[in-house]
């Protein structure tokens, strides 16, 4: 695949993942996510593990990772994502992202806004190293489903 010759706004990848595990640290994720319980003054931390297929014009494979989600007392949901993409040809690409999850009023769906960095040492995917990726999407909490589209920034 070599050097990236795309343009800003070009779709790099998309994925639909499912939660595989949610680790709680003393407060119910469902209660906080549903709005039944407010996060405590120190905030709430959840480790949300996910996995699913990656498709798109620039890469295909699977993604597997964890979001070290921090929900502040004021309701801001901060994302801290660490994942790996395994391409269909068996190459590994590291994915690191931060961003926010914004609740849709009256809905269990959150809008996601991710700032993504990709890194690999495989020459055929080295084009991912210098680019920045902007990845909007959604998370449907009751379904445990994440949908993301990653674009060259």
What does this structure look like?
By secondary structure, the chain is mostly beta strands. It has one domain (11-152): Porin (Beta Barrel), CATH 2.40.160. 4% of the residues lie in helices and 58% in strands. It is built from one helix and eight strands, in the order βαβββββββ. The chain has an eight-stranded antiparallel barrel with strand order 1-2-3-4-5-6-7-8. The chain starts with 10 loop residues before the first strand and ends with a strand.
Radius of gyration: 16 Å
* Helix content percent band: under 10%
Number of strands: 8
- How far apart lie the N and C ends? 19 Å
Largest sheet: 8 strands, antiparallel, barrel
How confident is the prediction overall: mean pLDDT? 94
Contiguous low-pLDDT stretches (5 residues minimum) are none
The spatial strand order of the largest sheet comes to 1-2-3-4-5-6-7-8
| The CATH architecture | Beta Barrel
| CATH topology-level fold name | Porin
């Amino acid at each position: 695949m070599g050097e990236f010759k795309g343009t800003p706004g070009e779709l790099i990848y998309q994925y639909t993942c499912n939660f595989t595990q949610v680790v709680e640290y003393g407060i119910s994720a469902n209660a906080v996510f549903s709005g039944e319980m407010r996060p405590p003054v120190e905030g709430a931390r959840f480790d949300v593990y996910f996995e699913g297929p990656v498709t798109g014009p620039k890469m295909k494979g699977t993604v597997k990772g964890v979001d070290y989600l921090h929900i502040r007392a004021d309701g801001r949901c901060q994302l801290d994502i660490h994942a790996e993409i395994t391409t269909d040809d068996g190459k590994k690409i590291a994915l690191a992202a931060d961003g926010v999850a914004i609740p849709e009023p009256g809905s269990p769906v959150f809008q996601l806004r991710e700032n993504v960095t990709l890194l690999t040492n495989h020459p055929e995917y080295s084009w991912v190293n210098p680019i920045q990726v902007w990845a909007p999407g959604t998370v449907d909490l009751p379904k445990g489903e994440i949908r993301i589209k990653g674009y060259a920034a």
